[in-house]
Automatic annotation (TrEMBL):
Entry annotated with the keyword Transmembrane: yes
Keyword Transmembrane: yes
Transmembrane feature ranges: 63-80, 86-104
Keyword field: Membrane, Transmembrane, Transmembrane helix
Record protein name field: Zinc ribbon domain-containing protein
């Protein structure tokens, strides 16, 4: 574990409604990128636009072509009409059709844009992948040049769309070099790998200490599934106690994983043990579990006659 961590300020990854919101495409060379530069990283032209805007432009162009074809057909029908009565009839019918088509298009433009975006992703999947791989290469080069924070931010942005364990471990490896704080914009669930890796366990333990509200179902299941391997780590015991300490902030986790909590309850900091004890005492179902019996034993051994363990008082999360 790195003991010479850097004090840094990590950039905030602004939240977006959709994962693809950060993806842009160059209208000049077709390069896809998540980098927030003003100019295209490939051709240097200032032609980058969000992919959703590109899809909207293509949708509007297609709709315009539909209107234009309808207009041309209407004009052709009028021109070949044998008499004035048919000319007027075709002109009126064409006008009604144009208005109806325009109204339908206007109501459906948002849905049509999303369908066009889906087609763009399917049609240019390889180009998108190549662009994101190139973005990752730029991020790695930043790290190798000593700009670890900038490289981390680039790789983190690509991880929104490129989700694989190799990239997750690269991000975790970089995070190990930083002195993490509770005020930092840090993620957890998106960095958990499919298989066990000490980097993941160490990061979960760190998050349990500085941002315990990030400890949720996915990280808890990961820790429990790999508990024997974590115990073999140098800091494994500390990680498991820290995660247990974070879990007791919610009764749901206590009720779902009482067996795991039992194994580390004795080693909780006092204020976390007090919270756990009070939650169990206040719940009739939890009182029937073996966890309640263990807590009573721990209470009598470690905190005899302690007024904080009388079941009263406000709970701290």
């Amino acid at each position: 574990m790195n003991t010479t961590k850097q004090a840094v300020q990590l950039p905030v990854l602004e939240p977006s409604r959709h994962n693809y919101d950060r993806l842009r495409v160059c209208r000049k060379c077709g390069r896809f990128t998540i980098l927030m530069e003003e100019s295209c990283p490939s051709c240097g032209k200032m032609k980058l636009v969000p992919v959703i805007r590109q899809a909207r432009v293509q949708t509007l162009r297609r709709m315009f072509n539909e209107l234009l074809i309808t207009l041309i057909l209407t004009i052709a029908a009028v021109l070949i009409s044998p008499d004035m009565r048919l000319m007027a009839l075709f002109a009126a019918a064409g006008l009604v059709l144009l208005v109806a088509l325009f109204l339908v298009q206007r109501r459906s433009v948002e849905g049509a844009t999303l369908r066009e975006l889906g087609r763009l992703f399917r049609r240019q999947r390889s180009d998108i992948y190549d662009g994101l791989v190139e973005d990752q290469r730029i991020g790695v080069e930043e790290v190798r040049s000593g700009h670890e924070v900038a490289g981390y931010h680039i790789l983190r942005q690509t991880a929104v769309l490129v989700q694989n364990d190799r990239l997750r471990l690269a991000l975790l490896s970089l995070l190990q070099n930083f002195r993490l704080r509770s005020d930092m914009d840090l993620e957890l669930d998106s960095l958990i790998t499919r298989d066990f890796d000490p980097l993941v366990a160490e990061y979960i333990g760190e998050m349990a200490r500085i941002k315990r509200d990030r400890i949720k179902e996915r990280s808890i299941r990961y820790i429990i599934a790999h508990e024997p391997k974590i115990l073999q780590m140098e800091q494994g015991w500390s990680i498991l106690v820290s995660v247990t300490s974070a879990m007791v902030r919610m009764k749901r986790y206590i009720a779902t994983y009482p067996g795991f909590i039992r194994r580390y309850a004795r080693h909780l900091p006092k204020e976390r043990f007090v919270r756990l004890y009070r939650i169990v005492q206040a719940d009739a179902e939890l009182l029937q579990d073996a966890l309640a019996q263990d807590l009573e034993v721990i209470r009598h051994e470690l905190y005899p006659n302690d007024p904080e363990l009388d079941g009263k008082g406000a709970l701290q999360s």
